[in-house]
């Protein structure tokens, strides 16, 4: 019983530490450690409900941790995170010339990498080509709405990443999230400058 007196407070301490973690991987690891200690405390103290509840929480945290790590490995491989590297193993689709990918105001739950071809951003009179990313803004703004219409200028092959995959990757690797924010900021800045030039001209 003396051991149980130490296991309970130790589990509580780890749970408190987990709540202060800034990244999801650290939070999951400390939460799993707290769960393991809580299971041990319940077993030693013969408190069945504590062991069962802690085991359920441990299982959920372990699964979420595995899921996030598997997503990062699938999307980024062993390299440094970058917006284009993430599209190596995601689903792909093809557009024919003139086909609209999305319209301004549409709900947006995916971002895209142009693998081949060109896409016109209609409202901005801008053309994006191979290797460029589009649709990322809608994943980050609160409304999740498309800010412009995207239409294929030629036959286009796209790699698609869902918002869920993006969020899991950013939680697992904050460096990717920071790079994505820089990409969006650069894109918005370029669009503002382009609109200003059009108004002045």
Give me the CATH superfamily of the largest domain.
Jelly Rolls
Query: Which CATH class of the largest domain applies here?
Result: Mainly Beta
CATH topology of the largest domain: Jelly Rolls
- β-strand number: 8
Report on this model:
- The structure is a single chain.
- The chain is built from 6 helices and 8 strands, in the order αααββββββαββαα.
- With 201 residues, it is α+β, with helices and mostly antiparallel strands.
- The protein folds into 2 domains: 75 residues; 116 residues, Jelly Rolls (Sandwich).
- Helix 2 runs antiparallel to helix 3.
- It is elongated.
- The N and C termini lie far apart (82 Å).
- 24% of the residues are buried.
Task: Please render the helix and strand layout as text.
Elements: H1 2-19, H2 24-44, H3 48-76, E1 91-95, E2 100-102, E3 110-116, E4 119-121, E5 126-128, E6 133-134, H4 136-140, E7 150-152, E8 156-162, H5 163-172, H6 174-200
Helix pairs in contact: 1-2, 2-3, 3-5, 5-6
Question: What descriptive keywords fit this protein?
Answer:
6 helices; 4-stranded antiparallel sheet; about 200 residues; single chain; 2 domains; about 15% strand; Jelly Rolls; alpha+beta
């Amino acid at each position: 019983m003396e051991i149980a007196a130490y296991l309970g407070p130790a589990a509580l301490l780890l749970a408190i530490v987990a709540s202060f973690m800034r990244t999801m991987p650290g939070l999951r690891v400390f939460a799993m450690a707290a769960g393991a200690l809580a299971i041990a405390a319940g077993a030693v103290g013969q408190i069945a409900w504590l062991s069962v509840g802690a085991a359920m929480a441990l299982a959920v945290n372990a699964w979420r941790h595995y899921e996030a790590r598997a997503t990062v490995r699938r999307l980024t491989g062993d390299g440094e995170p970058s917006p284009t590297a993430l599209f190596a193993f995601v689903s792909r689709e093809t557009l024919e010339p003139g086909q609209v990918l999305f319209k301004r105001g549409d709900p947006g739950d995916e971002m895209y990498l142009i693998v081949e071809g060109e896409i016109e951003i209609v409202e901005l009179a801008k053309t994006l080509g191979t290797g460029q990313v589009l649709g990322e803004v809608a994943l980050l703004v609160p409304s999740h709405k498309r800010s412009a219409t995207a239409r294929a200028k030629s036959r286009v092959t796209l790699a698609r990443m869902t918002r869920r995959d993006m969020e899991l990757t950013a939680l697992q690797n904050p460096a990717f999230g920071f790079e994505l924010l820089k990409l969006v900021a650069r894109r918005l800045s370029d669009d503002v400058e382009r609109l200003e030039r059009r108004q002045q001209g």
